Predict the structure.
Amino acid sequence: MLIQSGDILGINVSSLNPEASAVFNYNLSRVNGNNYDNSPGNPVYGYLVDQQGTIQLPLVGAMTVAGLEPAQIRTRLRQQLLAYLREPVVNIRLLNFRISVLGDVAKPDVYVVNNERITLLQALSLAGDLTITAQRTNVLLIREQNGQRQYISIDLTSKVLFTSPYYYLKNNDVLYVQPDKAKYAPVDRGYRNLSLVLSALSIIAIVFATVYR
């Protein structure tokens, strides 16, 4: 999983001198350490990755994290902290990992995932699984990567799914489950029947208008 702009990182630092390492953990209350707004409208914690792909850390300053995996960030940050702390231990996790499951599922919604590794099938389970009228051979995955939006068609009935690069979802992925045409068949028949009735009434009206003119 690569970090990108808009991600929020939870960073916890500990060391043999806890008072010194505490300065890096003050952000655990609010984004980028802003502890003044405790309203429900500001519920997010951690360091926000800005549009330049960096986060601002005490003492360290700006650190580029976009395009890196959490393990890489942890290693680099630990190396930089050796100048300030004795035997620092760094833990990093993505705090705003979320996916959207929409369309013909039991519970369409946006889901916040505590685990940073979730499969496509697990995401569908969170949404209560597909309904009986859902298409299983053409589930649409919408993913934004490197500023480009991708639209990927996924066949849930294929064994290839388990080795697909899209089996594991990424942050902000959107799954859209398309309904089968059969779902709208009764509606289509209703419209056709209504059209026939209106046509018949129109013909009758014309006949009456012609006869009694």
